[in-house]
Amino acid sequence: MKMSEKFNKPYDPKQNEEKIYKQWESSGYFNPDNLPAFPDGTPREQSWSCIMPPPNANGSLHAGHALFVTLQDIFTRFERMRGKRALWLPGADHAGFETQVVYEKKLAKEKRSRFQMSREELYKEIWDFTQYNKQFMEGQIKHLGASCDWSREKFTLDDDIVQIVYDTFKKLSDDKLLYRGLRSINWCPKHQTGLSNLEVSYEERTEPFYYIQYGPFTIATARPETKFSDKYIVVHPDDDRYAKYKHGQTFDVPWINGTITATLIKDKAGNPEMGTGAMTITPWHSEIDFDIAKRHNLDYEQIIDERGKLLPVAGEFAGMSIKDARPKIVEKLKELGLLIKIDEKYEHSVPLCYKCKREIEPQLKEQWFIKMSPLANRAREAIEKKDVKFVTERHKRIALHWLENLEDWNISRQIAWGIPIPAKICQDCGEGMIDLNNDVKKCQKCGSKKLEKDPDTFDTWFSSGQWPFATLGYPDKNDYKEFYPTNLMETGHDILFFWVLRMIMLGLYRTNKVPFKTVYLHGLVRDAKGIKMSKSKGNVISPLEISDKFGTDALRMALVVGNTPGTDLNLDPNKVGAYRKFANKLWNVARFVIMQVAEIDNLPNLDEENQIYRNLQNFVDEVTDDIQNYRLHLASEKIYHYIWHTFADKILEESKPILQGDDKKAAAIQARLLFEMLKIQLKILHPFMPFITETIWQELPEKDSDFLMVAFWPKK
RNA sequence: GGGCGAUUAGCUCAGUUGGCUAGAGCGCCACUCUUACAAAGUGGAUGUCGGAGGUUCGAGUCCUCCAUCGCCCACCA
Fold first, then answer.
1. pLDDT digits (tens, 9 = 90+) for A250-298
2. Cα A144 to the chain's mean position, in Å?
3. SS3 A515
4. What is the fold, at CATH topology level, of the domain defined by A548-710?
5. Domain residue spans in chain A?
């Protein structure tokens, strides 16, 4: 036997990785349907599946993507080697709002704006943009070694996916879990769309709190600019200070733009602890106020427009932005003698658009809402019964808590980029009607024929929340029957609420089964110093650059070793460098062992009773147990340590005298031992460092499968 | 206002159900170009495991309190 000439030193990842990936791809083994049978000829029967969280098709991969690709690939390769029909299904997400925001930034750079374009033009442009990104992204995922089945790849805007999403929408309506309602929603004045509660972030601010004379009352507010037409004053029914006034009593109140008639409302929403215990309400721009108005059947009026400017009701202030108007209004209140005092140290949290950080301006809008509590209750039950298990106990607790008091979910978005909501809106009475086949011609409520298509699109999470069963072809495709429920959902803990829990709720709702049996949540990938990566800070580490420099295998190890589930990880290039060294170490170990074997003509059989060999088998069992229990951080470190400090440092060193001694038979036996041990080590390391292990495997003079990728996991 | 996590070598972090004479990588010191490997090897220094109590034969690991940092949740006019 002779060593291949390309078995050079040191190990060069670039020379091998791309080539190996192409070989894997053309082998067809990423597709579970093509996997070879067991050595004794029995076919693979047990299935295992994982759906890839579809990356947003709006940019290149970041370190977080590299982490999930690595983790999921490890599990997939492990299960495949254990003889399962392993399916890892890849996809891409149109990522509605997120993508539109990215695209709007691009437009802004080009001095363009979406408000100068038709919806159709915008949609078309973003479509081309995502198609380009999607392709680019797939190449990057391949670069990271992902052994996913590309033949089953899905996009959230594929026709069959959209059809399933529409069916769910209809079913929710039939089951009375969907309604169209006028409600206060989180409106972003910049992006011109409503947002779900999850898409609002809060910031603690200290702002002035104004005490204003309102007839016989003193009210307190942080937002005087909303108060123009306030004509209801609300106090708690049990507030003694106001016991002398009666519910429904009216007062003539000198107000900002003249005298108005105010009505007293006694409602439990009034908080005696807050300010003076008396407040006026602005139902159009506050959810609480709107709820009060509904309870008492009060009038409401829009004060601020969608762009955050004051409407004509503001009189002389009309057309001004809130920010500009506030000090001027305060000035006028002062002139009118209505301003009593200002508390400068009022601390409260201000709702902001999670993308642009502008203040959310609540607006009343007709939107589609999903009633969450029935869905949430089922999800809680499934989690409590452990139909869905969480690898990290604390995320389970967080999940259960979140599911306890879920508000209804606004799934309407006023953006072009997304799945259009299949509905018509009556222009006369405002009734919204589901219209899957474009055959609703007149209003089901008032009979009017003036119907318009609902211009809105779905919240992107409404469609991605159906991803597991939709990608597998619910309800009748073979993949659905075989692979659903999936085994593993691996994703970032930051989208536990956005995605994971929505999938559990919608999955249970649609299929009566949980969408996945186990949830593994990883943390955020930060930079070497533990600072969150961001483009503005300029500390973004590109996984592709790191991979080019150190090799994908090294990057993968750096992402896994010491990275406990759910905890944030600092990605330090030095750490990646350490695993490049390890790759080189393994390379040289393999060279040495193959060199020894190459000098022997007839290798004897392995002595399976050999103690060193048995120790390795025990070690394999331990590592197998770690992987099965999602302790990749331990498994990877142990394998690293075994290969370097047990096998290379001790076993190989102690073998040298035997190998080079006079007893040729003993040398041959020892060579066989080392060779078999090398193969086992390659196998158990393969899920973590697939490229180098496969490269070495293909240089072996004797192997038990054409590709290491489909070799069988060692066991006693 | 509620909840959660972290605090271990100079730095970044592991340490699964209590058994650790506490580990890894990087960094540091000394010596070695010994044909698997200088992207290496051999040897070495460095820690009252945030603080105070407690449970235990035994605690980095469990309990209580405290301190510092970080995160999440919550319709506080």
1. 999 999 888 999 999 999 998 888 888 999 999 999 989 999 999 999 9
2. 19
3. coil
4. Isoleucyl-tRNA Synthetase; Domain 1 (1.10.730)
5. 31-177+371-421+456-522, 194-353, 548-710
The reported pLDDT for the residue numbered A552 is 95
For A207 and B22, how far is CA from C1' in angstroms? 51
A481-500: per-residue pLDDT in tens? Answer: 999 999 999 999 999 999 99
Question: What integer pLDDT is reported at residue A2 of this predicted model?
Answer: 46
Looking across all nucleic acid strands, the nucleotide with the smallest C1' to CA distance from residue A220 is B77
The distance (Å) linking the CA of A471 with the C1' of B77 is: 47
d(CA A525, C1' B19) / Å: 35
CA distance A694 to A688: 11
> Given a cut of 90, is residue A97 above it in pLDDT?
yes
Whether A150 contacts A27, CB under 8 Å: no
- CA A306 to chain CA centroid, nearest Å: 29
Distance B75 C1' – A302 CA (angstroms): 19
Which homologous superfamily does the CATH classification assign to the domain defined by A31-177+371-421+456-522? HUPs (3.40.50.620)
Classify A194-353 by CATH class.
alpha beta
Output the six-digit token pair for A478. 């073979």
Model pLDDT, residue A1: 38
Mean pLDDT score of chain A: 93
Look up residue A34 and give its amino acid. N
Structure tokens at A133: 């990104």
In percent, the amount of chain A with pLDDT more than 70 equals: 99
Closest-lying nucleotide for A596 based on CA to C1': B36
- What's the predicted TM-score (pTM) here? 0.95
**ipTM computed for the complex:** 0.93
Q: Which nucleotide is nearest to A625 (CA to C1')?
A: B16
Protein CA A280 to sugar C1' B36 (Å): 82
Q: What Å distances lie between residue A209 and A229, A321, A328, A330, CA to CA?
A: 19, 19, 15, 11
Mean pLDDT for the stretch of residues A29-53: 96
| Nearest nucleotide, CA A622 to C1' | B16
- Torsion angle of C-alpha atoms A297, A298, A301, A307, degrees rounded to 10: -60
Strand B bases, protein C-beta under 7 A: 3-6, 12-16, 23-26, 36-42, 72-77
